């Protein structure tokens, strides 16, 4: 797809040239969203090998890809953090927290030192806890530190609903909010197709609305990563595409609304990061109007915020 905007001076740095980082670099290249992509990894040899391979793809995409150090983050429109250990089969995202928090204590201050005006986009899990950590460790304003959060889950949810209702997922308006993890919630009260609530859509179509089928869609959404990891050991294509779809409105200043993780107050719980719809533009992620959640959804959001907060507290206590 040819770029519709001027990306001549856009530089994106990716910290972590592992599976997610490299797939994201490749997706960025194919989308023509950056003129320069810098890969930074503690394993310099791995980063160099990936850069050699990617630069042959870059030949067709007219972008420059190179391996770099933290000083090469300078001037980046965004720095994506994908460095860190990955989930093993059976592990939750929260199991990774101690190792990846220590890694963030090392890398985030270096990024902030060399790229004080950039936007940090966190993908490393547990993404909500680490988005909060990146905000604290960088000293950046909240809108310039965001996590991919439930943008991935919202994509999976629309995919499931689109498949069930037989419509293109882009025409399903439904979001997953809260933790990118087990306490996430599907906002059923606001889900629409063709501007109609799901029950009304079914009624107009003359088919029965099935609560059980809806529950199955949200269950498959929540369990998708576990199943993919059980089968292939990691997830990379979905998250890379989601990261690019988060970067696009930042690069093009598009005011697009996506569910990304950001520090704020949610369900009355202060100073915690989780995902709600945010407006994305060149200044970062901005909370738009609050969602009109039902009473039970408000309570589920509060529980999600509390479960993330509990992990945050255990980190600062240890
Ligand atoms: N947010 C999401 O939706 C999502 C989806 C998939 C994976 N993830 C997360 O992304 C992270 C990376 O996953 P992956 O599959 O790419 O793992 P990976 O093992 O393939 O890559 C991780 C990379 O980080 C590098 N690294 C480790 N310590 C570093 C440091 N101190 N500085 C710089 N680089 C360092 C490693 O050398 C490696 O290249 C994991 O935490 C994983 O859980 C998030």
Automatic annotation (TrEMBL):
Q: What is its EC number?
A: 1.1.1.27
Where along the chain is the active site annotated? 180
Query: Which Gene Ontology cellular-component terms appear in the entry?
Result: cytoplasm
* GO MF assignments: L-lactate dehydrogenase (NAD+) activity
**Protein name in the entry:** L-lactate dehydrogenase
Give the species this sequence originates from: Canariomyces notabilis
Q: Which terms are listed as keywords in the entry? A: Membrane, NAD, Oxidoreductase, Transmembrane, Transmembrane helix
Ligand binding (NAD(+)): 16-21, 41, 100
Give the Pfam families listed for this entry: Ldh_1_C, Ldh_1_N
**Pathway info:** Fermentation; pyruvate fermentation to lactate; (S)-lactate from pyruvate: step 1/1
What this protein catalyses is:
(S)-lactate + NAD(+) = pyruvate + NADH + H(+)
Q: Which residue intervals define the domain Lactate/malate dehydrogenase N-terminal in the entry?
A: 10-147
| Domain Lactate/malate dehydrogenase C-terminal stretches | 150-313
Transmembrane regions listed in the UniProt entry: 12-34
Entries under InterPro entries matching the protein: L-lactate/malate_DH (IPR001557), L-lactate_DH (IPR011304), L-lactate_DH_AS (IPR018177), Lactate/malate_DH_C (IPR022383), Lactate/malate_DH_N (IPR001236), Lactate_DH/Glyco_Ohase_4_C (IPR015955), NAD(P)-bd_dom_sf (IPR036291)
- State any GO BP term from the record: lactate metabolic process
UniProt lists the family membership as follows: Belongs to the LDH/MDH superfamily. LDH family.
